[in-house]
Amino acid sequence: MTRPLIAVLDYGIGNLRSAQKSLERMGADARLTADTGLIADAAGVVLPGVGAFGPCMAALEDTGLDEQAQTAAADGRPFLGICIGLQLLYEESEEAPGTAGLGILPGTVRLLPGNVKRPQMQWNRLEVRTPSPLLEGLDDAWVYFVHSYAAPMDESVVATCDYGGPVAAVVADGNVAATQFHPEKSARPGLRLLENFVSQARVAAVGA
What we know:
The chain is 30% helix and 28% strand. The protein has one domain: Rossmann fold. The protein has helices at residues 16-25, 36-41, 53-63, 65-74, 84-87, 187-207, and strands at 5-9, 29-33, 44-47, 79-82, 92-93, 108-111, 120-125, 127-128, 142-147, 149-150, 157-162, 166-173, 176-179. An 8-stranded mixed β-sheet has the order 2-1-3-4-13-12-11-8, sandwiched between helices. Strands 5-6-10 form a 3-stranded mixed β-sheet, with no helix packed on it. It has 6 helices and 13 strands. The chain is an alpha/beta fold and 208 residues long. It is globular, with a radius of gyration of 15 Å.
């Protein structure tokens, strides 16, 4: 079975290598990289990350990987955002007023509503709303979250968790998908999601 090339965007934020290693475990030729040629050649692209919206967006821009992410998302290849990588896909975030996001998805990332403890730092149950190849085998799975802000609850939300009400856990729009939780920290369910993504990249590589 072929090992599709997946570019994990290396913009120097957080433990990016854990996502790379988990993708390798699931059958990908995963490279942690900022090389534009390699990113262009990849069958799939992953934007992981931990931290705050503003510094992460600044790091993306400093490395030029903001444009690489936008190009990869626009050209139809499987694209996966993880944690802050999900939030960066949006136009803006309440966490960093005046800082523009990637604008790949419309809307504003907002503080978790209500009187809940912030951050949500726990395992929580995934509730699949819309069937998706990325979520195959994951309905009612328990996955690990660490976040204080969340994506808007719109038609792109394909899975939620309950944290004082429904919270966006997975979003998907065409070839672009993202998880608010950390699949690389979510044991078997998280690895299953990454395996599903690798399968999508494998199909994309064959069709290229």
